[in-house]
Amino acid sequence: xxxxxxxxxxxxxxxxxxxxxxxxxxxxxxxxxxxxxxxxxxxxxxxxxxxxxxxxxxxxxxxxxxxxxxxxxxxxxxxxxxxxxxxxxxxxxxxxxxxxxxxxxxxxxxxxxxxxxxxxxxxxxxxxxxxxxxxxxxxxxxxxxxxxxxxxxxxxxxxxxxxxxxxxxxxxxxxxxxxxxxxxxxxxxxxxxxxxxxxxxxxxxxxxxxxxxxxxxxxxxxxxxxxxxxxxxxxxxxxxxxxxxxxxxxxxxxxxxxxxxxxxxxxxxxxxxxxxxxxxxxxxxxxxxxxxxxxxxxxxxxxxxxxxxxxxxxxxxxxxxxxxxxxxxxxxxxxxxxxxxxxxxxxxxxxxxxxxxxxxxxxxxxxxxxxxxxxxxxxxxxxxxxxxxxxxxxxxxxxxxxxxxxxxxxxxxxxxxxxxxxxxxxxxxxxxxxxxxxxxxxxxxxxxxxxxxxxxxxxxxxxxxxxxxxxx
Amino acid sequence: xxxxxxxxxxxxxxxxxxxxxxxxxxxxxxxxxxxxxxxxxxxxxxxxxxxxxxxxxxxxxxxxxxxxxxxxxxxxxxxxxxxxxxxxxxxxxxxxxxxxxxxxxxxxxxxxxxxxxxxxxxxxxxxxxxxxxxxxxxxxxxxxxxxxxxxxxxxxxxxxxxxxxxxxxx
Lengths: 472, 170
Fold this sequence. Notes:
By secondary structure, chain A is mainly alpha-helical. Chain A has helices spanning 7-25, 31-50, 68-93, 102-118, 122-140, 147-178, 194-210, 219-226, 229-253, 259-281, 287-308, 311-342, 353-356, 358-372, 378-391, 397-422, 435-453, 456-469; strands at 57-59, 64-66. In chain A, α4 packs parallel to α9 (229-253) and α12 packs antiparallel against α17. Chain B has helices at 3-27, 31-51, 55-80, 96-116, 131-141, 143-165.
């Protein structure tokens, strides 16, 4: 057994356990220190992932695949986690009661995501998916004195368990029809039976829930609104990227059903997700709900890349996941800072933000423009990669819907920018930005702008990762 | 009667118990009764495992689903519900037509695709005790999910303790 294939995961599990022991032996005064320890550990994990590029092999009877694709996805998760911890440290320190285990659960959720990116069979995929989801159930309800957070946690638990049941039923049908749980040994489409198709449809529905694609999106606005904001950021970004990582593995790596059979489902999902996510985002007055619907719409764009089902499409998915992660966490970081200062998450409290804290105002504007896909932000390049992948195959309508809906999304993204730059602040007192938050938002700003102007730094890496996914 | 026929009769008998007690668990108005029927349903599932010669799985099913979980549910009900048990399991009858329609349609789709497919029959039923094979699979081929499950349970346990302790007022 080649344990080098698992070195990131072993390090993550060890790190989580050490953090757990640390959080037990240190008192409540050590909150700040634990945050720093988490950051240091996550940075080490990020460094470890860089040594894993180029291994491109599988092991453990095919249940584990470590290709550049998996490594790239793991980096997306780790970078999202680092930014979230930077931005959310002081928010977490405000928790009453036992807040020390917050970071432990975050690390375990991260471990689950890593497993999802590397899973080579249905069982590994399911267990790592549950590791991530169960950690999230707790994280969502973590603000123990807030009724909203508890409600969100309960809702997420019930709906998440339901979606897990659907996935599990789908997996059992796929196993029954294919006779194997290994993606690599799934039968080709010529022998696909109705049961295999049915199982695949259930998998689409279950993963659709995890990535919050319409019509499986109902849970996300309520839960994003009720959860502690750092958890919302992590949930919206990393859990969604992990859902895509797993979906690509199941449907492209394993091909339980060849593209021409399930392309129709994915295409319909992508179209209605883009349309409904963007349209419903418009009337929202709360920033977290608005970002929830916006992240539903973003899932629709990424689904277009999945539809393409070729290296170009996977490249788009990978590139866009990273860009989306950085820009979305950047936007949520600003929400965290403003929420801490004003105690509200209404869009109206952002009025005159540029007078109160120009840095936050600029970061919010840039991140929202990137999410809208306006050049020269990185989001534009990401959308370009996603839509050109499908257009290269001669299918134009998803790209058309994507362009139109992106235009519409500009409206509600810029509405927030308008409030920030035009309105007079109700309370002109400046908003303090502590060092961790400053680092997080500046990193998000820098990455979003630099990759928009010079995308090759990342797209070379993601293209290589996409090729490794198809064994090229 | 041949073995096959006895097997078939037993299978349908046990399955009927599983399904009917599951229906009772959902529709009964008294939560304690519902929990009891749930336990019956779980134990009958163990009967199906026995018919499939999955002896270890059957034992685990009886121990955990037949023993631990109903007790937990009963304790949960007793510790959280102070008024009488009657009407403690409300049933929504207003939208049952929709529910019937949707589940009926889903059932039809699932049945159609099940009837139209061939299943990969491999190995069928072995007469050996299943525990050795299970151990080999869990610590061999499926080592990684096994280890992941350990972390999963740890996370769930930490979470249960955190949520049960609750927060302190500011």
